[in-house]
Structures are given as structure tokens and as C-alpha cells.
Amino acid sequence: MWSRALTAVGMAVLLLTGCATTPSPTTGAQPVRVVAGAYPFAFLAGTVGGDRVSVETLARPGAEPHDLELTARQVIHLAKADLVITLPGFQPAVDQGIVAAAPRAVLDLSGATGVTVGSHAEHSPSEGHADENSHEEGAADPAHDPHFWLDPSSMAAASDAVAAALTTADPEGAATYAANRDRLDARLSELRTEYRAGLAHCGSRDLVTSHAAYAHLASFTGLEPHPLALDPEADPSAATLATIATLVRDHGVRTIYTEPLSSPKAAQVIARETGVRTASLDPIEGLLDPATDYLTIMSANLVALRQGQECS
């Protein structure tokens, strides 16, 4: 994977060297060109930017954003962008592309969200003999879970950062960006209230998921995350499977959650063994249905959680 990514970056650098021009300042006559590494960042740019921006998402719909490999064309688009929105460490190929392309402006969302993606967030305990307690602790730590958007308050902080970055790129649009940000932040505040109220009284507080994407959601709702793996593409270790199966039995867990973009096999094995059901919970890393968006999926996730956790 790395060799292909480096080849694409190298080709793009050659093309950029051969046809480099000095970019003109952004004006109200043309949209601000925004390139986003993953769907949640693109949602922010499109919602806050409105008609004043054009947004390209590097990760394909229906594909895991972690596994993104950039094409030479995408690296060129990074170079031509007025603003690139990213979370360093979440998509290593994007990090490489930004270094090669040197875009005009890069918004690093780690500052606004307080998230630092470390190596332990990228590997499953099935690789080697990882300690099971460390696996649980890492899964529960929002500071190292890139999925900040599953807490609406962190999404609002990112919204504010996007509005500020767009205003810098396009000062004439400042009032538009501020108004759109305020509307989004208000809806996010409502959504957070809905989650806290909807999950306040549940039959189970244990949140068993196929991979470690829910530390932020668990933190603000009071749920306890128990992922089968840290990496969505990794198979959980035998020790993790045994630990989770025991927890499901001992704690009266009702539901094990799978994800739209990942294999449900491990979750289904434990569900059959323990006699519980499975349900889909979307970490909103990418869209499968263009008729949906971040807000509608978050609302659907709340419905799934209320049913799965047997909340009143």
C-alpha cells in the first residue's frame, strides 16, 4: 500500500513541478475550493460554506477512509485547493499528500477537537500479544479516538474552526459562514441533548461494538465501550473474543453492534454463542446512501442505540 501511495505522490510532484503556477487569491466570484480527507470534514465544509464553497472528499463513498490511497490527480487537487481539512494520523496517505502538495491552507482539526491520533489507535490487539486491559483503556480514551464527530459538542468545535478557516480564505463570506455555523451548532446542541436524554435510562450501559470508534459517544452518554478490535479491518484476538463473550453473559448485554463498512463476522460469532442480537451502528466514516447525511445518520444511530440498549 505504501509503495503505491508514494508512487502516486511522486507522479503528482512531477506534474506539479512541470506546470506550477502561482494561485490567485480567492474572491467572491468563484467558490472556495475545499478538499476534505473524509466525509465528516466534507459535511462541515459544505454545511458551513454553503454555496460559497466547492467540496471534494478524498475518500470514496462506501470505502474505509483509513485505507485511502491517493491518486496523482488527488494530490494535484490538494495543491490547487484553497483549504484542506484533515485530522493528522487518521489518514496517513492524506498526511503524505499534504507534504508533497503544499496546499495554500490546511486546517488541522486536532487543535479544535483535542484529538491526537496515535499508533495504538491503528492496531488491533490480534497483532502480537497486546494486553487486554490496554486494549480496553485505549478504546475508552476520546483523546486518541479520531471519531470526534460522534460527540456533537466536538463536532461543534470543529464547525467553529471550519468557519474561521473559510473566513480567512474568503473574508467576503464571513457573515455567511458565521450564520451557517450558528445554525449547525444549534442543531448539534439539540442533538447532544437528545442523546443524553434518550440514553439516560437503559437496561444496559455496556456498548459492545465491532471496532473502537465510539469513545467520544460513550464519554458524553455514560456508556461503557467494549470493542472487538481497534482496527475495523483486523480480526479480534481469541483472548478478546473470550473476554467479550464473558462480559456479554455476565453483564446481560442485549446487543452487539456491527458497522456498514466493516465485516460483521466476529460480532455474529459472539452473538450466536451468547444468544444476543446484532444491530447496525454507523461510525459515519463515509456515506453509503447519498440521501442521508451526518445529522440523519446520528438520529438513526440514536434510535438503534435506544432499541439495542433497551432504553425507556
UniProtKB/TrEMBL annotation:
<feature type="compositionally biased region" description="Basic and acidic residues">
    <location>
        <begin position="120"/>
        <end position="148"/>
    </location>
</feature>
<feature type="signal peptide">
    <location>
        <begin position="1"/>
        <end position="29"/>
    </location>
</feature>
<dbReference type="GO" id="GO:0046872">
    <property type="term" value="F:metal ion binding"/>
</dbReference>
<keyword id="KW-0813">Transport</keyword>
<keyword id="KW-0732">Signal</keyword>
<protein>
    <submittedName>
        <fullName>Periplasmic solute binding protein</fullName>
    </submittedName>
</protein>
<dbReference type="InterPro" id="IPR050492">
    <property type="entry name" value="Bact_metal-bind_prot9"/>
</dbReference>
<dbReference type="GO" id="GO:0030001">
    <property type="term" value="P:metal ion transport"/>
</dbReference>
<dbReference type="InterPro" id="IPR006127">
    <property type="entry name" value="ZnuA-like"/>
</dbReference>
<comment type="similarity">
    <text>Belongs to the bacterial solute-binding protein 9 family.</text>
</comment>
<dbReference type="Pfam" id="PF01297">
    <property type="entry name" value="ZnuA"/>
</dbReference>
<feature type="region of interest" description="Disordered">
    <location>
        <begin position="116"/>
        <end position="151"/>
    </location>
</feature>
